[in-house]
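Researcher: We're teaching a course module on how sequence relates to structure. For the next exercise, students receive a sequence and then see the predicted structure as tokens, so they can try to spot secondary structure elements on their own. Here is the exercise chain.
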Amino acid sequence: MSALVEQLNEDLSEVVARARVGLVQIHNGHRGAGAGAVWHPDGLIVTNAHVVQRRRPQVVLADGRTVSARLLAADPDHDLAALEVDATGLPAVTLGASRRLRPGQWVVAVGHPWGIAGAATVGVVIGLGADLPGFPAGRGEMLALSLHLRPGHSGGVVVDESGQVVGINTMMAGPDVGLAIPVEVAKRFIKDALGTP
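Model: And here is the predicted structure for the students to work with:
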């Protein structure tokens, strides 16, 4: 049993390490910080619309550099925003497919809660928001997860067992359900807003 637990710990640590390198911290002034995912090595970052409170937030890259970002597009209905920074060769996240997720599948949410860079929380997929009774209207395009998202997780990533991004952290729905935007919704947002995949 201990060998199984050790292997699980090692695997989870590797998954988190892969996800962390593609994350940035986003500082929006006096209201605190959130996370963002490097979508493209040439400086395209995806985060939550609610994380971006001004048009030029400060972004802390994985290597510790702080740069100004430009807001390219925002979709408050899906809580998504696209930023651009003047940097190239950034380590980007690996995009997966949320439509392949199954209830009960393990996932890891990574972000910067309380300013702790790259902190992770683990849970399982409950399902799509539309499948849950009493779920908030208009939130059908959400992943419901049995994990706790804290302030600073917003805009971070949900990854599967291979470290591929399957969602973007957004908020809690009650005390025990974390919500994430499916990666397909984020891909569609980027394509519609910027004309790029």
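Model: If you want an answer key for the exercise: The chain has two domains: 19-92, 98-187. The longest strand covers residues 66-75.
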